[in-house]
Amino acid sequence: MAKAIRISQTGGADVLSFEDVEVPAPGKGEAAIRQTAIGVNFLDVYHRTGLYPQPLPFTVGSEGAGVVTAVGEGVTEIAVGDRVAYAGGPLGAYATERVLPAERLVKIPAGVSDEIAAAAMLKGMTAQYLLRRTFRVGPEHVILFHAAAGGVGQIACQWAAHLGATVIGTAGGSEKVALAKTKGCAHVIDYRTESFVDRVREITGGKGVDVVYDSVGRDAFPGSLDCLKQRGMWVSFGQSSGPIEPFPIAMLGQKGSLFATRASLFHYIATRPELLATAEDLFDVIASGVVSIDIGQRFPLAEAAEAHRALEGRATTGSTILIP
Known about the structure:
It comes from Hansschlegelia beijingensis. Helix content is 28%, strand content 27%. The chain is α/β, with parallel strands linked by helices.
């Protein structure tokens, strides 16, 4: 009998229940995997609280890694014994075993561990599309990345620095500021003690930045817009501090003919070719040492609620994983 973290009602971390579950044999186009590591993301919190509603009950989680134990009819992408990882697709990652579409699985290359893959897939592919497709970052750009010491932030800031950009990060508290400075940030602003808007203007000589990457939401708005150059881009891809209240689109014009987008990874990896290309780019920068993946916290699967409390309390750095 497999084990999984299930939710029968939305709410706080205490609604996460560690339960026995039946895992069916894989059907046509599906694969069964025995999971070895599971990624924890703020997306999981959004599902748990009902911010992103899901049919109840359900198993939490969007990211994991493991070994293929069986494949269904017609599966050619992977084979039994392959080490694989995934991000997105059907929910259900918080489990010891699961079945999911084989086309959403990516082989883990030699030299990348299962834990690193589970910690990096969702966050790392998010960094890839943000930096390489939503706004293509290069040496000519100055960027502001909120939550630079977080899981996505650490990967993205290292990657952006490698691309030649000048990276300004925000972080909360001296320890996270110090950490962000080791992860590609040329400047780090402690949002607890400093106005990030004033500091960005100071650092850039009043010019502002080309792009702001914002997973914080409410607490960083509308200040993020005030950090941008004319015709700069605000990229919202999360809301860890809460959702942003509706605002008049005219504000973008008043603040400099700004561009704005609310981006989601799943729209950037919707097809298998997009998924494979994104994952390949990510694994390349990991394998080459351009990006190091910091697993700041490991929790047993049964203690998923504690992992959520730490994440929501901003008590984590880097990536958090669950061990089945």
